[in-house]
Structure formats: structure tokens, C-alpha cells
Design brief:
alpha+beta, 3 helices
Length: 113
């Protein structure tokens, strides 16, 4: 969906750690010229996607790692950009201060005999 933005040449979405939810959505984007800012691309995504699918972190990059078959290496993206993500100012995911993860018998893992 990010590739449908007129200024985006290529994009890859991958998971990053989130302190509350476990994982969050991040995206690496290669831009065409003239390049918009990351906020414009996030705004474009938020108009077309559910809120939980909009990347919380958007990295503007020069290259997206791919394997020998041309597939995007999402795990490698997360590792390569871990240092950038640690310094990068993330857009906070709106979470109520009273939010608590569900605690019920159904949410607990079960073991098989």
C-alpha cells in the first residue's frame, strides 16, 4: 500500500519490538525525487489503513536488503536498523493509561498431556 504513494519507489514493512503490545509495525521506504517527509507518508497510510496497520516507525532508506531470489529480508531489516530504531523518535501508539492486557483462562497457554 505504501508503494501506491506517488513519491515512494519501494517499501518494506517489518515487525519491531513494542513495550506494551509485543510487536509494532515499522516500514523502510525508498523515495523518488522530490521526497516528501515521513509525516506525509504516514498520513497517506492512515487515510487508507486501519490505525493498527499504520507503521509506527517509518525509516527513509537508500536500500532494502533482499535475498538471492529478490525477496525482502524482513528479519534482516529489523536487525540492520535496530540501532537506528533505538535512536529514532517513534510516533507513540495511543494507549490508554488504564490499559491492561486480558487476563483470563483463555489467554493463558495450555500444555498438552
Amino acid at each position: 500500500m505504501l508503494c501506491s504513494h506517488p513519491a515512494v519507489e519501494e517499501a518494506a514493512v517489518f515487525a519491531i519490538a513494542h513495550p506494551v503490545f509485543g510487536e509494532d509495525v515499522a516500514a523502510a521506504v525508498i523515495l523518488k525525487q522530490p521526497a516528501p517527509d515521513a509525516n506525509e507518508i504516514r498520513r497517506f497510510a492512515s487515510e487508507r489503513l486501519s490505525a493498527f496497520k499504520v507503521p509506527g516507525t517509518l525509516l527513509i532508506v537508500r536500500d532494502i536488503p533482499k535475498g538471492p531470489t529478490g525477496k525482502v529480508q524482513r528479519k534482516r531489516l529489523a536487525v540492520l536498523f535496530a540501532d537506528k530504531l533505538a535512536r529514532f523518535e517513534q510516533f507513540p501508539t495511543p494507549v490508554s493509561k488504564s490499559f491492561r492486557a486480558p487476563r483470563s483462562q483463555r489467554s493463558k497457554p495450555t500444555s498438552r498431556p
